Amino acid sequence: MEYEFNFPIQSKLKPEEYDALRKAASPRNIQKGTILQAGQSECHGLFLVRNGQLRAYTTNSEREITLYRLFEDDICLFSASCIMNNLQFDVYIEAMENTDIWVIKADVYKKLMESSVIIANYTNELMASRFSEVMWLFEQVMFHSFDKRLANFLQNEISISGSNLLTMTHEEIANHLGSAREVVTRMLKHFQTDNIVKLSRGSIEIIDTKKLDDICS
Fold this sequence. Notes:
By secondary structure, this protein is of the alpha+beta class. The protein has helices at residues 15-24, 106-115, 117-143, 146-161, 170-177, 181-193, 209-216, and strands at residues 25-30, 35-38, 46-51, 54-59, 64-70, 75-76, 92-95, 99-104, 165-166, 197-200, 203-206. It folds into two domains: 10-142, Jelly Rolls; 144-216, Arc Repressor Mutant, subunit A (Orthogonal Bundle). The chain is 42% helix and 24% strand.
């Protein structure tokens, strides 16, 4: 699919800077479930999301946990790990739905960062934002009970999908939250007993958002 290249801060860039980015960017259509990045050893370039949804996560031999998700006009810096110093952990990028992206060559972006204060500042702001998201995740895991984490996740999914009917498996939720499927299933059954959700195979219907809010508060 061909579409116009748009960079989030292009109105602040010099014409030659925008032109360099545009020439270094190639469009790709990614199918749902595709792993675009598998660890820090890979350096594909920056992923700029045109539409759809990507998930950045880390994993060990037993579990995954979502670090953050990317939507329209979001940029994934970790897909260009070679331009960042001291990245000490593996990051995986997965398409959560069919997604159109631009892939910007890492070497071109790195040169622009070195020559443009605007691009350098924007990149630093992106890194700070991602760091804040990861720190928020750390706080959730360390200091919040699992029922609150699950309730918060369901709230976010309602906001993202625009529907109280969520089509996802318990395994998928466990991967987002860095937990075991059995733990997710057990807590969802508690929620169902409390008439907060209705469980069906492959889907979860939120039937009482007020109770969900009360758990999160």
